[in-house]
TrEMBL record:
Region (Disordered): 73-95
UniProt cross-references to SUPFAM superfamilies, sorted A to Z: eEF-1beta-like, GST C-terminal domain-like
Identification of the protein by name: Elongation factor 1-beta
Keyword annotations from UniProtKB, A to Z: Elongation factor, Protein biosynthesis
Residue ranges with Low complexity bias: 76-88
Record flagged with keyword Protein biosynthesis: yes
Domain of life: Eukaryota
UniProt record similarity statement: Belongs to the EF-1-beta/EF-1-delta family.
InterPro entries associated with the record: eEF-1beta-like_sf, EF-1_beta_acid_region_euk, EF1B_bsu/dsu, EF1B_bsu/dsu_GNE, Glutathione-S-Trfase_C_sf, Transl_elong_EF1B/ribsomal_bS6, Transl_elong_EF1B_B/D_CS
Record-annotated Elongation factor 1 beta central acidic region eukaryote domain positions: 98-124
Domain Translation elongation factor EF1B beta/delta subunit guanine nucleotide exchange: residue ranges: 133-219
Length: 219
């Protein structure tokens, strides 16, 4: 198991850390990798593991038949530790000694400090900015039980925006033979407005009665 023993806090913590930056174990929709991890976990994670709990509750919302129909997926590989005999390589910012002592005169020491400060600034500037994302589950409600739900989902998925990725979907009964479409999406917060996304879906007014946000989680 890529996360270790999921019956232990260490294993759950590893899973929680992985799901901090990922919606699913493999890709952008549930796969057999999610099902395998879900079964290995066995029970709902402690509330302190917020990302793992969010993922667990989402996978729990699928029926056993739906879970078994998940596409194939692979578990993330674990990273192997570097050989202990290899010389240490300075990578982390904390390893850069900006004010190291020097046996040369003060002018030479100042020159060295300036060079190190410049190198440090260049290294920081090359680090990619963190992209804030959210996982959103939308409830799309039809007008009545005669609405073509497949046509509705097809129309919803025609909406394309930079920073928007559609995920898994399912039909959820709401009563009187009417189902609602529950569909997941992952959006980049700076590029996609949730209100605009809802408005775009509601433009399909021949099929869509209303749209509600069923779940919203930062990832």
């Amino acid at each position: 198991m890529a996360f270790g023993d999921l019956k232990t806090d260490k294993g759950v913590a590893a899973l929680d850390n992985f799901l901090k930056d990922n919606s699913y174990i493999s890709g952008y929709q549930p796969t057999q990798a999610d099902l395998q991890t879900f079964q290995s976990l066995g029970k709902s994670p402690n509330v302190k593991y917020t990302h793992a709990l969010r993922w667990y509750n989402h996978i729990s919302s699928f029926s056993p038949a739906e879970r078994n129909s998940f596409a194939g997926g692979s578990l993330p590989t674990t990273k192997t530790a570097a050989p202990t005999t290899a010389p240490a390589k300075v990578e982390e910012d904390d390893d850069v000694d900006l004010f190291a002592s020097d046996e040369e005169n003060d002018a030479e020491a100042d020159k060295i400090r300036e060079e190190r400060l410049k190198a440090y600034a260049e290294k920081k500037s090359k680090k990619p900015a963190l992209i804030a994302k959210s996982s959103i589950v939308l409830d799309v409600k039809p007008w009545d039980d005669e609405t073509d739900m497949k046509a509705m989902e097809k129309q919803v998925r025609t909406i394309e925006m930079e920073g928007l990725v559609w995920g898994a979907s399912k039909l959820v009964p709401v009563g009187y033979g009417i189902n609602k479409l529950q569909i997941m999406s992952v959006v980049e917060d700076e590029k996609v407005s949730v209100d605009l996304l809802v408005e775009e879906i509601e433009k399909f007014e021949d099929l869509v009665q209303s749209v509600d946000i069923a779940a919203f989680n930062k990832i």
